[in-house]
Input
Amino acid sequence: MPSPWLLSPVTSNISNVERVRPLLVGGASLALGITGWWALAEFGSIPAYVLPSPGEVIDRAVGLWNSGSLQLHTAQTLAEVGQGAAIGAVIGVVLAMVFFHVPWINRLLMPIIVVAQVTPKISIAPLIVLWIGLGIASKVTLVALVVFYPILINMLARLQSIPSNMRDLAKITGMGPIRRAFRIEFPFTFPAIAAGLKIGLLAGVTAAVIGEFIGATAGLGYLEKQGQDNDDIRLVMVTLILLSLIGYLLWAVVGFIEKKASRRYA
Output
């Protein structure tokens, strides 16, 4: 049987390849997409006001950056998503714990929550803006509204699947509610919380943009609306690309934290 130290370099190389492969595939797909976009804009006989080239979009983005407009509107949208996600995550976790330990509250409130969630957010947004105003609070409320639900549902389902032997152990050792929550329930449900947060953040970016479309004085959604009103296709594309990047980066950050936490609790 070969010695373990002889196999470790091979195993390490395979592991490194597995880590790098998604980045290479993703980078190749992105490069292919941009190349196709450039070829279509340059040789497809499509007017620039319908499909500008990547270079024209970059020039527009650089102009916005130099004027400071891009930083201002990006910071506004990030603030809305960040604050709304934090509030929504706390609400989702707290409700999941309450619903799990007090079933009659679950039966009472869950139908109301489901009705609120199935109602299109673009229909709710004008009402929230009218109630709260054009400022950041209305957008934070919209983001929190869409973020808390997937966390609540995922965490509640995970709590209900805690093995009976873990519950019995908590009773035998005399764990109180707080100790049981931090020693058993939170570690066991963390992957579900992270998965719900990933979904919620992507929906939260959309909710923030919807709120900015309905009524705002700043934000990438507001900037995109300005581009639409002024027939500035380059501005619309700049904001769309930025919003896509923000959504992807938030998803990646949560995934990174999830991996680190999973190793700690493993």
